[in-house]
User: Fold Glycine--tRNA ligase from Victivallis lenta.
Amino acid sequence: NLELMDKIVSLCKRRGFVFPSSEIYGGINGFWDYGPYGARMKRAVENLWWHEMVETRDNVEGLDSTIICHPRVWKASGHLDQFSDLMTDCRKCKSRYRVDQMEDPTTCPNCGSKDLTEPREFNLMMKTFVGPVFDEEHAAYLRAETCQPIFVDFHSVRVATRQKLPFGIAQIGKAFRNEINPRNFTFRSREFTQMEMEFFCDGEEGMEFFEYWKAQRISYYKNKLKFKDDFFRIYEHEKLAHYAKAAIDIEVKFPFGWGELEGVHHRGTWDLSRHSEFSGEDLAYMDHDNGRKFMPTVIETSVGLDRTMLALLSAAYDEEKAATAKEGMEEDTRVVLHLPPLVAPIQVAVLPQSKKLKEQAYNLYKDIDRHFRAEYDETGSIGKRYRRQDEIGTPYCITYDFESANDNCVTVRDRDTMLQDRVNVTQLRDYLEKRIEA
Ligand code: ATP
Assistant:
């Protein structure tokens, strides 16, 4: 449904969720900026993940590592030698493709020409230089995934926190890949944010924890991000990396088709063994309870924040032929984002019925803003203001009217049902909290 994709892209631009990076210079392919609402929502999604994966768990620790690591890290991880895609160029129209993404690798998807270059390997690591000399000796790489520093810091984190196996380390941060063909809006970007958690355990418990984390992540999508059953599915990998025991992807129905959102992988002892070998530091774990020493097995959950945002927007976007006379609008199309209240950029909007009520309404807004992501809007008719909030997915609009000063009550309008409740201001926080956290 490419029409839907265009509508989402256009709404994101119009309302300040996402726009092309460096747009006044013509943009730069594969790079996107999050505007004010996008940034608020992105932070909310990130905080929710961190809360669920780190803050509410005694056995998961957080990490915030550098983007540039010692180049040997990427030698050990295999990225420098193997992190590449097969690429081909069309000699006629000059477009470039990843061979594995072409339906027919002998025909240019753009112009139909058969005059393609021989497929060749293209490494996806972004390269830079550290220090004043720009030669190979000073070459370094922007991390292609956030998990490698977790493996590299495993020992330091374990010692500092006195964690015993099993335990996990999580990190949120930027990753960079020189994607050959960035496309589908933010889905395939060259700079993006990952949220990854590596869980270290005894190999004997590996499959048990793999199943545990798979279930945890599915439950998160169902219960926190409110994904409907037909919006996501589990893809079981048939071909596994030689060291892996099991791997699934959580896929989402994006407007352009099914796409990977998250991977949950049983990676065996591969990562820590490789870094032990390449660094010369023994990263094996000593179990003092039984005197056993072994290389921990890793279960990984790895999700893209940008793809989560796109998934949420795709699930949320809706156009309704609606507008009731009561809302003061002509019959028209209501564009609405049915975002889960937990991650909506604005959770509560406060709207005075008239500018004469500005002072009281603004004070109420300031009060609410301490507990929720809130916004104050006094411009235009109430109907227009509701529409603006619908379009950015605000679940609750509060109208302060001429009665409010007398009865200390306000009207709360629900985005999805458009029904209104009269709520006493003293009950308001409780009323909103119950609904937003439901
Ligand atoms: P794909 O097959 O789509 O290229 P991948 O299997 O290479 O993805 P992983 O290396 O498993 O992806 O990365 C974990 C997660 O990071 C992905 O599930 C995705 O959400 C996110 N991610 C990976 N590459 C990109 C990208 N180019 N742009 C945005 N997010 C990405």
User: Anything to note?
Assistant: The mean pLDDT is 95. The first strand starts at residue 18 and ends at 20.
